[in-house]
Amino acid sequence: MSKRVLLFPGQGIQFVGMADTFAKFKWNSEILNRVDDSLGFPVISNQLTKLMREGPEEQLNLTEYAQPAIMTSSILHWKYMSEMYGIMESSFSFALGHSLGEYTACVIGGAISIEDGVKLAYIRGKSMQEAVNGLSIRMTAVMASEAIVRKALSEVTFDGTCEIAGINHDRQVVLSGTRDSVDLIADYIKKHYKVPVKHLNVSAPFHCKLMKPAADRIKIELEKITVLSSKLPVISNATSLPVVTPDEIKKSLVDNIVNPAMFLRGMEYVLSHGCSLFTEYGSKKILSGLASKIIQDRKLDGLAVDIHDK
């Protein structure tokens, strides 16, 4: 029997109307009500699912709203498959999420409740933004290998912050930090290595040392909630190794914020353990595309990416 992997996306897939994909099902409104009830903050209580349905888009795109909205959307996709087809956690060998998706994986694995999960996602997003208020920031995707990017970082002198924030596949590395420093490195790579770069439309420089205040806040919040062992191993973004126990999960979710999101390494781990079917629970097929590219680059046969994008 094929070993299967759950994929959960991170920020960037939000869109107005994302709460209505499964509107005809009774459980859809039940989950959305639980989400709204759990967010007892004056600025957001009973507003998140309205934002997901009606917008405005510019508010939904704010990190503090986008992150719990994306987690909620993935939970709804998972609920649909479990209700309609009897899919259970035991059907999968691993869960692999990208950035925020690691938090979602912990909710689906039963380590964290839906209510605590969306609260963590909200606090995570808000704390990330607050950590860099007043700073000019940048995240840039570089279509080059990790080796080239690390070589460039060693060749160029810069004053601010520029770090590898993620490795998505063999030829895509994301840089994060202060605008001048990231632009300097990206321009150097573009000029000297003749590869394209793309600036990302984000409001904070995720997965770098500038996010330490957000990591410190999440560490405190995790001690306030119940964290159980996960029903399936969750691949840590920071180490690319599975975590299961409460202590492992809490450490990984904190490290997730300041360390690079190593999706490529996570894929390499599950591939090396015989996994051959990958299913994404979310919209826009981002991770499905990355997984397919990684599989194609390795010329692996008999592997499939099953996109659940209803």
The SSE order reads EHHHHEHHEHEEHEHEEHHEHE
* Strand percent estimate: 15-25%
CATH architecture grouping of the largest domain: 3-Layer(aba) Sandwich
The dominant shape is globular
Mean pLDDT over all positions: 93
Protein structure class: alpha/beta
Helical segment tally? 12
The percent range for helix content is: 40-55%
Q: Which strand order do you get reading across the main beta sheet?
A: 8-7-2-1-9-10
Largest sheet: number of strands, sense, barrel closure: 6 strands, mixed
Topology:
Elements: E1 3-8, H1 26-38, H2 48-54, H3 57-60, H4 63-85, E2 94-97, H5 100-108, H6 114-131, E3 137-142, H7 146-155, E4 162-169, E5 172-178, H8 179-193, E6 197-199, H9 212-222, E7 234-235, E8 242-243, H10 246-258, H11 263-272, E9 275-281, H12 286-297, E10 304-308
Parallel strand pairs: 1-2, 1-9, 2-7, 9-10
Antiparallel strand pairs: 3-5, 3-6, 4-5, 7-8
Helix pairs in contact: 1-6, 4-5, 4-6, 5-6, 6-9, 7-8, 9-10
Q: Summed up, what is this model?
A:
With about 300 residues, the protein is of the alpha/beta class.
Question: Can you characterise this structure?
Answer:
The protein has 310 residues and is α/β, with parallel strands linked by helices. The protein has two domains: 3-132 and 209-308, Malonyl-Coenzyme A Acyl Carrier Protein, domain 2; 137-199, Malonyl-CoA ACP transacylase, ACP-binding (Alpha-Beta Plaits, 2-Layer Sandwich), CATH 3.30.70. It is built from twelve helices and ten strands. The chain has a six-stranded mixed β-sheet with strand order 8-7-2-1-9-10. Strands 4-5-3-6 form a four-stranded antiparallel β-sheet. α7 crosses α8 (179-193). The two termini are 26 Å apart. The model has no long low-confidence stretch (mean pLDDT 93).
